[in-house]
Amino acid sequence: MRKVVLIPTYWSRAKREWKEGDAVYDHPTPLDEEGTLARTLESMKILTEKDFKLVLLICPTTPEVADEAEKRVVQIIEDVNLQAETYIFTISDLEKIANIIYETDTERKSEKLLNMVGYANVRNMCLFCADILSADAAILIDDDEVFEKIDWVERSVEFLGKRIYGDVVYGMAGYYTNKYDQYYDDVKMEHWMTYWDRFGFKAKAFDEIIGSPPRVKRTPFAFGGAMIVHRDMFQSVPFDPEITRGEDIDYLINSRMYGFSFFLDNTLAIKHLPVPKKHPQWKRIREDIYRFVYERAKIASQVKSGTMVMVTPEDFDPYPGEFLRDDLEEKIFRSNMMLAQDYMMKGDNEGALESLNNIMIAKKDAQPNFDAFTRYKGVQKLWEKLCAIVAEQRYELRKIMEDHNITNHPILRDEQSVRKLKTEERIEVLQKAFDFELSDEGWATLAKKFYVKTFYEDEMLSGAAILMKQCI
To answer: How far does the chain reach from its first CA to its final CA, in angstroms?
Structure first.
């Protein structure tokens, strides 16, 4: 199974400066700070299997910091020296790829999907890169996580594509543990949460799915930084660009609508050590309001189709289903009234006003002024066409990515086009080609009997008028 591990890494201006027009992310790394990416890559050294391609998607908050962010990431890769095939993917790479796509998509309809701004768009570019690299499994990780299980990669794909409980595993979810090695959110419960008990319902869902047997079971939730997606699904189901937060659970909802099943493996834990959020509480609940109101509208606007599955809020109980029901506005009203009261008791009039404003936002601004279900169906059709273009133009698209293969070494060969490879390099090629076990001495003996030839795209095989492309 060809595996691609994809890690988006977000970068911002130095000194945590923000200007109008900059993209907004929870905790991008300022150019003058160390960040968390190196810690994640260092933790990957414990993995017993590194037979995967690693892609780091560099997502700047503004194009003005893109070049410097690229230099920082390349330096981190070189300093860590992970010993895994590693690529970077930049906004300039995307521009080059888009130009190739537009040769087929002359009306540029796919332009809305070829975008690296916003969480959902970035996740789509993760799937897009995996497709270009011919992945069977896209393994989505975040840059504020730490691997603690040496066999995490093997576990992540152990059941992928196999049938469990009469259903095929197209999506596998791992889960986060916090600094206390618990799977619960590391939050302090407050009085205003009485009617917005999001963390309470999440804890209930986590206990049912993560904390109970069997090891693998269907799940109503998933984590974007511990998500494994089978090729059949990521070539069919995109993340919804209209969702601004919670794109991981929204993806699970979308996949269910298209008949794909998500499971969770309760042994697939990864430590999540995010930078503390600095946004005020009223702003965080506002982000939840937008996502839940939108998702509820998408579910409510479904129409029957012979190729899709009708879903209900109850299908995603206890979380997020509890926040997709008809009483969502009442939850928003009661919780924000209590939050406003808390702010007023602390003398924070601005916080109180913004909390009350959340109630109006839920009734007006958060409500999509379009049919959310139909809009997403259009996005899905467009995504399938985009993946079809990738299949036709994969070689040209792959060449662009190979230009940013950080671990690619110059190809050396003799006059017979035989690659000058060390014995251990030939052994590595053989072990990928043949699925059997030999001793170290056996592999070394076998390697002496094999060689690798490489032909470039401007060369012809002797005796045959066939234009050869470079063998990688």
So the answer is: 17
